[in-house]
């Protein structure tokens, strides 16, 4: 690693931590219903929405009603996206006259966007009309993010309240997440993106006559890229900035274009690269402060944030280090020594690409600014493991925090076993019911990853994998790690548009989202009903370094025990073979 | 349970529709208006025109093959390189023998134009998007000899053009130094009075 790599790494971490603090406190005001400033601007709209939709915002919900509401609007979202994608051929705003999407790809895309995964079984510019991008995908980017944030708010209330069944009103949490947090941040970010060059227009298709016309048919100096025979380039524009802003802020990740944020129209400059990375981790990091403020003990939030930050710093450092090593297979063939740039963009370089890879997999974002498939074996391993840890190292908006709080409960449970006392977290006893729900949340994603991978290897289409050797297995493992944890990034050489992949993927994404949300809400309901215990001499303080260490160890051990064998067959074997052969 | 479902059904449907209007229509339309007002050129794709017709976008790379032009990065888009309708990387794994093979071919072909000097990495590896508009300053410098000879320009003139089209790192450390290939080639045309 060179000096600028270190500087970029440190600078990013510092800005992230500094920016998350004020936002987190602001978000706590939003979820506690206190004046937050923007409510003066949007309060009238908020009340109008409730009135027109028949929402009684003053009426709180128990966990079952809250869960029903979550499932209701999410199922409607899935059906709506599927229908729009199928019918886009006859809908307006379709300048390329694209036909309806393949029904299997449409199911996959609908589940993918409703679950905040944004796995791309489609190729944006070549498959989806402006209508579909705006009214189906952009909307789900907001709603799926707001769903995760609302569930996190409900879990925090479960810890903060005592002897009640009420967790808040889902419609209110959802609406406020959109109006006061996601929408204003998206507007600001999108405007900066437009300034930097991200298109935002309804003139969708521009025919350009290339500078060098094919009449000048000199042999290409690099031997492989002949001049474009047409001498033309069709530029696809559209409302790109509006979607890119929310896809990052909402940890969604689904791109307007096939190559996502590697595409110069989505991510044209180093500045946009920085802001988009920051946007990915901003709300998940801020949520830790929101948690601390809402339960009335800021130190609890700081402890969780510290654990996440330490894990992230470690994994991002490892990814940067792996990508700064030259590919030994490219030595000795007349190429200047240095890190490989295959699949990377010059304006980001190896460091900007590796840091992004860690950011996008730590959060359940999944947008990419370089092709992870072409990373060094270890450069692909660390992002893959970040997903496999359950998307709790910052994680998705809301979902990262509720995932990490579940790990915190497991950590106090483990600590309780060691000293022989009833475990407590934030003054709440962690009893068999809570432990069972926590076990579900922790075990379902790894089960989906490994079972999906096994099924694909045994019964999947043989031609889906594009690279030979252990890397082919890595492509499959990466795909299910991504879908089974609602991330959405890919080793993109994998052909994932066949019915096998679209359907198994849809199941994995659906289960890993809602079968986690429902136990988390049950957990919240159960915690809300408990008394708050005073701290005793046997209480493990959950804001100190011992607890932080324990939390980090639990996250790593659960992830490592589950995935080391599979990783050994994929990236580890590839790494050893690559460096031994060359 | 059934009563609860019914009670939440109306808010779910209506709130979905209202939020669709706000986030799926009002938000992008408002932003399009703001973009057109504040940053009209960028909002429309940073298009470049020459003699009244669009020759491309400043942000999107183009294929160049003539010896008098600087070439950009290899592009893995199908069916032809730099196809902006289908952005794509090669997705070749670091360990895939096909990667070494294609890099070796490119390196050998480039070395025909300038034997002996190791080829910069970005000239032999395909970009992530297949539309990368930039090359590294080293990759531009590497091509000076060929371009200057084909154009009949002194090497110093070409070197100065490269320097003028080199973008620095942000704040001195963020991102990478880079040269926009299309802008550089346009400047070359202007310098030699070529259309």
TrEMBL record, chain A:
Q: Name one Pfam family in it.
A: KdpA
- Gene Ontology molecular function, alphabetical: P-type potassium transmembrane transporter activity; potassium ion binding
Listed A to Z, the keywords are: Cell membrane, Ion transport, Membrane, Potassium, Potassium transport, Transmembrane, Transmembrane helix, Transport
Q: Which InterPro entries match?
A: KdpA
Topology within the bilayer: Multi-pass membrane protein
Q: Which residue windows are transmembrane per the record?
A: 6-28, 68-91, 134-156, 177-195, 274-295, 302-320, 392-417, 438-459, 500-525, 546-568
Keyword flag Transport: yes
Q: Where is the signal peptide?
A: none
Subunit structure, briefly?
A: The system is composed of three essential subunits: KdpA, KdpB and KdpC.
Q: Which family does it belong to?
A: Belongs to the KdpA family.
Instruction: Describe the task this protein carries out.
Output: Part of the high-affinity ATP-driven potassium transport (or Kdp) system, which catalyzes the hydrolysis of ATP coupled with the electrogenic transport of potassium into the cytoplasm. This subunit binds the extracellular potassium ions and delivers the ions to the membrane domain of KdpB through an intramembrane tunnel.
Give the protein name, as stated in the record: Potassium-transporting ATPase potassium-binding subunit
From TrEMBL, chain B:
Record key words, sorted:
ATP-binding, Cell membrane, Ion transport, Membrane, Nucleotide-binding, Potassium, Potassium transport, Transmembrane, Transmembrane helix, Transport
The record's subunit annotation is: The system is composed of three essential subunits: KdpA, KdpB and KdpC.
Keyword Nucleotide-binding set for record: yes
Briefly state the protein's biological role. Answer: Part of the high-affinity ATP-driven potassium transport (or Kdp) system, which catalyzes the hydrolysis of ATP coupled with the electrogenic transport of potassium into the cytoplasm. This subunit acts as a catalytic chaperone that increases the ATP-binding affinity of the ATP-hydrolyzing subunit KdpB by the formation of a transient KdpB/KdpC/ATP ternary complex.
Instruction: Just give the chief location class.
Output: membrane
Q: Name one Pfam family in it.
A: KdpC
Q: Where in the cell is it found?
A: Cell membrane
Query: Looking at the UniProt record for this protein, which Gene Ontology cellular component terms does it annotate, in alphabetical order?
Result: plasma membrane
Question: Matching PANTHER family, A to Z?
Answer: POTASSIUM-TRANSPORTING ATPASE C CHAIN (PTHR30042), POTASSIUM-TRANSPORTING ATPASE KDPC SUBUNIT (PTHR30042:SF2)
Molecular function, one GO term: ATP binding
Concerning its family, UniProt says: Belongs to the KdpC family.
Q: Which gene encodes it?
A: kdpC
Q: Which domain of life is it from?
A: Bacteria
Q: How does it sit in the membrane?
A: Single-pass membrane protein
Give the lineage: Bacteria, Pseudomonadati, Thermodesulfobacteriota, Desulfovibrionia, Desulfovibrionales
* Name by which UniProt lists this protein: Potassium-transporting ATPase KdpC subunit
Which InterPro entries does the entry mention? Answer: KdpC (IPR003820)
């Amino acid at each position: 690693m060179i000096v600028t790599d270190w500087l970029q790494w440190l600078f990013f971490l510092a800005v992230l931590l500094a920016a998350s603090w004020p936002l987190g406190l602001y978000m706590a005001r939003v979820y506690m219903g206190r004046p937050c400033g923007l409510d003066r601007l949007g309060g009238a709209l908020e009340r109008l929405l409730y009135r027109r939709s028949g929402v009684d915002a003053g009426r709180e919900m128990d966990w079952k009603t809250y869960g029903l509401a979550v499932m209701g609007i999410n199922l409607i979202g899935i059906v709506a996206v599927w229908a729009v994608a199928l019918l886009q051929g006859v809908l307006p705003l379709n300048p390329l006259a694209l036909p309806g999407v393949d029904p299997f790809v449409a199911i996959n895309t609908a589940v993918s966007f409703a679950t905040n995964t944004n796995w791309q079984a489609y190729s944006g510019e070549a498959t989806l009309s402006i209508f579909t991008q705006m009214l189906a995908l952009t909307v789900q980017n907001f709603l799926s993010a707001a769903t995760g944030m609302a569930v996190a708010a409900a879990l925090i209330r479960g810890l903060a309240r005592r002897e009640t069944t009420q967790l808040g009103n889902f419609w209110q949490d959802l609406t406020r997440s959109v109006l006061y947090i996601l929408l204003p941040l998206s507007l600001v970010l999108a405007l900066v993106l437009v300034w930097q060059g991200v298109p935002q227009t309804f003139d969708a298709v521009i025919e350009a006559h290339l500078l060098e016309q094919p009449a000048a048919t000199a042999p290409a100096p690099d031997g492989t890229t002949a001049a474009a025979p047409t001498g033309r380039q069709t530029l696809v524009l559209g409302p790109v900035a509006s979607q890119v802003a929310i896809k990052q802020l909402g940890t969604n990740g689904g791109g307007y274009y096939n190559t996502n944020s590697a595409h110069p129209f989505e991510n044209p400059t180093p500045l946009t690269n920085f802001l988009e990375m920051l946007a990915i981790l901003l709300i998940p990091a801020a949520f830790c402060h929101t948690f601390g403020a809402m339960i009335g003990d800021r130190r609890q939030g700081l402890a969780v944030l510290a654990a996440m930050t330490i894990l992230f710093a470690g994994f991002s450092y490892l990814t940067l280090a792996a990508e700064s090593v030259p590919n030994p297979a490219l030595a000795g063939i007349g190429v200047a020594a240095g890190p490989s740039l295959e699949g990377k963009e010059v304006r980001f370089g190896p460091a900007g690409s590796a840091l992004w890879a860690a950011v996008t997999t730590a959060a359940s974002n999944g947008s990419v600014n370089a092709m992870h498939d072409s990373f060094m074996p270890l450069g692909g391993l660390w992002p893959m493991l970040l997903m496999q840890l359950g998307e709790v190292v910052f994680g998705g908006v809301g979902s990262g925090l509720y995932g990490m709080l579940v790990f915190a409960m497991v950590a106090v449970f483990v600590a309780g076993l060691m000293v022989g006392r009833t475990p407590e977290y934030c003054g709440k006893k962690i009893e068999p019911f809570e432990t069972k729900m926590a076990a579900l949340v922790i075990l379902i994603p790894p089960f989906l990853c490994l079972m999906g991978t096994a099924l694909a290897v045994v019964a999947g289409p043989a031609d889906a994998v594009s690279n030979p050797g252990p890397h082919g297995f890595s492509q499959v493992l990466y795909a299910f790690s991504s879908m089974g944890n609602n991330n959405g990034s890919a080793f993109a050489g994998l052909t994932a548009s066949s019915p096998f992949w679209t359907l198994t993927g849809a199941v994995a994404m659906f289960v890993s989202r809602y079968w986690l949300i429902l136990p988390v809400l049950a957990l919240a309901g159960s915690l809300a009903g408990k008394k708050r215990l005073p701290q005793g001499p046997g209480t493990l303080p959950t804001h100190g370094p011992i607890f932080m260490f324990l939390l980090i160890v639990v996250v790593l051990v659960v992830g490592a025990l589950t995935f080391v064998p599979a990783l050994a067959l994929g990236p580890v074997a590839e790494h050893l073979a690559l460096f031994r052969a060359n | 349970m059934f009563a609860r479902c019914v009670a939440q059904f109306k808010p779910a449907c209506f709130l979905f529709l209202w939020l669709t209007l706000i986030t799926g229509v009002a938000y992008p339309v408002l932003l399009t208006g703001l973009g057109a007002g504040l940053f009209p050129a960028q909002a429309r794709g940073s298009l470049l025109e020459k003699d009244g017709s669009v020759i491309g976008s400043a942000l999107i790379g183009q294929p160049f093959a003539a010896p008098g032009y600087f070439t950009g990065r290899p592009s893995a888009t199908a069916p032809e390189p730099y196809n902006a309708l289908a952005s794509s990387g090669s997705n070749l794994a670091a360990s895939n023998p096909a990667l070494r093979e294609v890099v070796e071919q490119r390196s050998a072909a480039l070395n025909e134009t300038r034997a002996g000097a190791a080829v910069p990495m970005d000239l032999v590896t395909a970009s992530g998007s297949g539309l990368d508009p930039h090359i590294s300053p080293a990759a531009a410098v590497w091509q000076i000899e060929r371009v200057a000879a084909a154009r009949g320009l002194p090497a110093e003139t070409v070197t100065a053009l490269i320097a003028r089209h080199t973008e620095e790192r942000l704040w001195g450390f963020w991102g990478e130094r880079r040269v926009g290939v299309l802008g550089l080639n346009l400047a070359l045309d202007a310098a030699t009075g070529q259309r």
